[in-house]
TrEMBL record:
Residues 1-29 form the signal peptide. The keyword Signal applies. PANTHER family: BLR7088 PROTEIN, COPPER CHAPERONE PCU(A)C. It holds the Pfam family PCuAC. Keywords: Signal. It comes from Thiomonas arsenitoxydans (strain DSM 22701 / CIP 110005 / 3As). PROSITE patterns: TAT. The keyword Cytoplasm does not apply. This is Copper chaperone PCu(A)C.
């Protein structure tokens, strides 16, 4: 087998690149207790809107159901836990007391379906590329400090059809 002759600098650069590549997935996910957040995003503000939406993907690796019981952010007056449903082709949002994260399941919050965080009384519009600091409190898993990246709807929703075409934002 032929041996590569690499300088110290080349070896350092290659090792650093390999370590950064290996650490990238871990840097994207955060965990507290059995709850892992693998995606944390928010929508850019609609001109003139005073409220905004936040969306998470949560994985409960445990054997005990958990739930989000509160959230807070310095970008707004307060954060409400919401659900969305379609009734007679009209989108209805309502505040809920908690957002369940069942044991062994994944909850995907997505625009236009199911659960989401609602940023009420925004202090400034949310702009694409910004990060929104949010503290999420769980009934059993403690609390987590997150940075939601403000991204366009199509980047958050991915392949998700819009309401009325399929049921989403639920457990998988």
């Amino acid at each position: 087998m032929k041996r590569l002759n690499l300088s110290r600098r080349q070896t350092l650069v290659m090792t650093s690149a390999l370590l950064m590549w290996a650490a990238a997935p871990a840097a994207l996910a955060q965990r507290t207790g059995d709850i892992e957040v693998t995606r944390a995003q928010a929508l850019p503000s609609i001109p003139g809107a005073r409220n905004g939406g936040g969306f998470l993907t949560l994985v409960n690796h445990g054997q005990q159901d958990d739930k989000i019981v509160a959230a807070a952010s310095p970008v707004c007056g307060h954060v409400e836990l919401h659900t969305m449903s379609m009734e007679n082709n009209i989108m209805r949002m309502r505040e809920v007391g908690d957002i369940p994260v069942p044991a062994g399941k994944t909850l995907r919050m997505q625009p236009g379906s199911g659960y989401h965080l609602m940023f009420m009384d925004l202090k400034a519009p949310l702009k694409e590329g910004e990060r929104v600091p949010v503290t999420v409190k769980f009934a059993h898993g403690g609390q987590m400090e997150l940075q939601l990246k403000v991204e366009p709807r199509d980047k958050i929703a991915g392949d998700v059809p819009m309401p009325g075409k399929a049921m989403h934002g639920g457990m998988h």
